[in-house]
Amino acid sequence: MQKRWKPNVTVAAVIEREGRFLLVEEDTRDGLRLNTPAGHLDPGEDPVQACRRETLEESAHDFTPTALVGIYLNRFMPSSATQDITYLRFTFCGTLGQHHPDRALDYGIVRAVWMTPEEIRAAQARHRSPIVMQCIDDYLAGKRFPIDILNVDPSVYLQPRSATENVA
Question: pTM for the complete prediction?
């Protein structure tokens, strides 16, 4: 039987303030990379909740998603590794909230930085993902979809049963 292909679901925030965008600088095995605040969808949360959480963890900013910029699919195949990972990314824009300067940033995040679109484009060789610039370009082009386009079944929020509860 063939192994089932399952893309990794991620979320990202495109946050603009006065013509600059909030990015995070991450320490990766490939060196320092730039990304929009982003991360994986965790069990028990929907994409909007995940985006709020990831933005706070990576940038120390509260964030309220108000629109979906786009849904992106990309494949990560580094030449020096055996990984072959596909990501399905939900990218949101919204309202930037309070900054928590004393909050520790997520593991691997060096700092949050505000950059102009020109600075971001000039640094494409340092982007964590090939779709960082695409998400920002789509935002700049005015792409917005209502968040209620996402339908989440209530079962997503249920706590998983323990192994002993599953035995009948």
Answer: 0.88
